[in-house]
Design goal:
It contains eight helices and nine strands. By secondary structure, the chain is α/β, with parallel strands linked by helices. It has one domain: Rossmann fold (3-Layer(aba) Sandwich), CATH 3.40.50. The strands form two sheets. The chain has a seven-stranded parallel sheet with strand order 3-2-1-4-5-6-9, sandwiched between helices. A two-stranded parallel sheet has the order 7-8. Strand 1, helix 1 and strand 2 form a beta-alpha-beta unit.
Length: 258
């Protein structure tokens, strides 16, 4: 039986690029998203055989919804070899605006609680089998806080710490936890950005490097590596220098469009 990968956020962007790469490697696909018809249309365009994939409708911000999708996958396709918690959202915020607190709650519900809820249905089965990969999608934005981007940066810092904790918990089980921190990837999410995006790479190029990282069972990887160097240098900067460097930087679009 071919291996199985479970991917959230499979209706666009990185989710589809990752699904394409795993399909090319011979994996069966369990594809999760809210826009299921878009996933079906994408599979049809690529000529992916209906026997090699299943689509599950779920909203990762709703714990019961994503847990139900995971359980449906277990019942229909078996225990995945790889689970990629890829679904995420990125919206700017201004803490002085009351409505943006709701935005922050939505981001944390999707990017953090949703990630843990994505892993939840599979952990016991993977531990019992003694193998598996749980892949958390973080970001270089989780390494230092960017002005106007507080909710997203906080959520991705949370992903990094959560996955590190989970990795320690599962260390002796045979189940690997892989944290991926993308830099700037050309997706519908990043095309809205109004600031420079150094080392921008295509989604397919990211998926290739991510696939190799996941297969190797690496614990943590920044992709592309150049952004890893930049992130480390930024981490070393004294706060005063860091603040001065980012002064006047355009902020992420807020939900209001400003």
């Amino acid at each position: 039986m071919p291996k199985l990968v479970f991917i959230t956020g499979a209706s666009s962007g990185l989710g589809q690029a990752l699904a394409k790469r795993f399909h090319q490697a011979g994996y069966r696909l369990a594809l999760v998203g809210r826009r299921t018809q878009e996933i079906k249309s994408w599979c049809d365009r690529l000529g992916i055989s209906a026997s090699s994939y299943q689509i599950y409708s779920a909203d990762v911000a709703d714990i019961n919804s994503i847990v139900a999708a995971g359980r449906a996958c277990l019942a229909a396709q078996g225990v995945p070899d790889v689970v990629v918690a890829n679904a995420g959202i990125s919206i700017g915020m201004d803490t002085a605006e009351r409505s943006d607190l709701d935005v922050m709650a939505q981001i944390l519900a999707t990017n953090n609680i949703g990630l843990a809820a994505t892993f939840h249905p599979f952990i016991d089965a993977m531990v019992q089998r003694g193998s598996g990969r749980l892949v958390g999608m973080a970001s270089v934005s989780g390494i230092r806080g960017l002005p106007g981007h507080g909710a997203y940066c906080a959520s991705k810092a949370g992903v990094i710490s959560y996955c590190e904790s989970l990795r320690g918990e599962l260390r002796a089980s045979g189940v690997k936890v892989v944290t991926l921190s993308p830099g700037y990837i050309d997706t519908p999410l990043t095309r809205q950005n109004r600031y420079a995006m150094p080392f921008l790479m295509s989604a397919d190029a990211f998926a290739e490097r991510a696939y190799r990282t996941i297969e190797a069972g690496a614990s943590y990887r920044v992709i592309p590596w150049q952004m890893g160097v930049v992130a480390k240098l930024l981490r070393l900067l004294p706060n005063a220098w860091f603040d001065r460097l980012l002064a006047g930087r355009p902020r992420k679009h807020r939900r209001s469009g400003r």
